[in-house]
Q: What sequence folds into this?
């Protein structure tokens, strides 16, 4: 299902008119913005997006974008910690700022001046926003002078709680 690379350029208008479902992948190594926050370029972004028009005929892209196991530096022990990133995408493709301003508040605008959607650019930005604010190992051994690492960590990152649950299996 996710074994084909996503095309460099997508004609958003055509895809929306045809109510096309797009499945495929983008390598993390192709996303420069995201890479700036990562320690390695490991990982493959799985893309599952529905192109369609809403009741007001606006081109809309919705769906799920996920990447498992990106490698970030743990801010406590400075070793690699892996994270899964996930974006629930819901954007309207618009041609300029004035169209963007007319969108309802809950709808995010993606400005595509020539109608050719560069999905890498869009997903790069969205994935950066999905990064954890701080990244720590769930069970990081290093104690800091601020106190017990484990107790502090649980409040800071939902990933930490999830990771510790998974490790019990
Ligand atoms: Zn650590």
A:
């Amino acid at each position: 299902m996710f074994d084909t690379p996503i095309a460099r350029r997508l004609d958003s208008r055509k895809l929306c008119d045809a109510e096309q479902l797009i499945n495929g992948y983008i390598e993390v190594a192709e996303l420069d913005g995201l890479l700036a926050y990562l320690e390695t370029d490991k990982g493959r972004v799985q893309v599952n997006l529905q192109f369609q028009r809403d009741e007001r005929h606006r081109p809309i892209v919705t769906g799920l974008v996920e990447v498992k196991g990106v490698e970030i530096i743990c801010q406590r022990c400075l070793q690699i910690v892996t994270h899964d990133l996930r974006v629930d995408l819901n954007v309207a493709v618009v041609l300029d700022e004035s169209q963007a301003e007319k969108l309802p508040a809950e709808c995010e605008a993606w400005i595509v001046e020539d109608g050719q959607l560069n999905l890498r650019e869009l997903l790069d930005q969205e994935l950066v926003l999905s990064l954890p604010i701080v990244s720590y190992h769930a069970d990081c051994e290093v104690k800091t002078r601020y106190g017990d690492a484990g107790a502090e960590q649980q409040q800071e990152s939902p990933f930490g709680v999830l990771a510790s649950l998974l490790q019990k299996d």
